[in-house]
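Structure tokens please, single chain.
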Amino acid sequence: MKLFGFWRSMATFRVRIAMNIKNVRPDEEVSIDLMKGAQFAASYKAVNPQMVLPALADGDGPVLFQSVAILEYLEEKYPNPPILPKDLRGRARVRGLAQIIASDAHPLYVPRVRNYLAKELKLDEAGVNKWCHHWQAAALQAVETHLTGDKETGRFCHGDSPTMADICLVSHVVASRLFKLDLTPFPAAVRIVDECLKIDAFARAHPLKQPDAPKEITH
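Here you go.
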């Protein structure tokens, strides 16, 4: 098993968390430096034609791509401990919370979007950060409303065991902290994320703990 990722890739962060929860270790990790444009190299394009992270090679089959699809793959291949509830509606709720982050918010502030805003639309750093903050906060507000308004919320997003929803929420809040978003309006989300980060599987996957992470962080 080979994982293609990058320390700052929040999507890769999700996959690392799931692997840690399921006690699965890739045989090899390949760092694809998003900040230097390594994802556009022909060698990586051959791995993932979309030229985004992560990608997972597992055996002789096609390379897997898109973090949520990889999470589902890991859940099916390594069902214990689970990251989806057993009941049908619970699984739908968890997937919905995860998709608020992974589908609606995260794609709007990844490096290729920020670079387009800066280089093509000529936004300065403040303008780019304002864009990122807007979409990060919009997602958190939606998640916060679900968390505070649904009796299914427990110690974690859904009940008292971490699920795919928590994996995605942790990646989003960590990214929001890197972008210095004010998280005061989202106490339920912050509480759950801080609870998750007490767990080794989450803490060990943190971007700043990866071997390719720099000593000093810049956007």
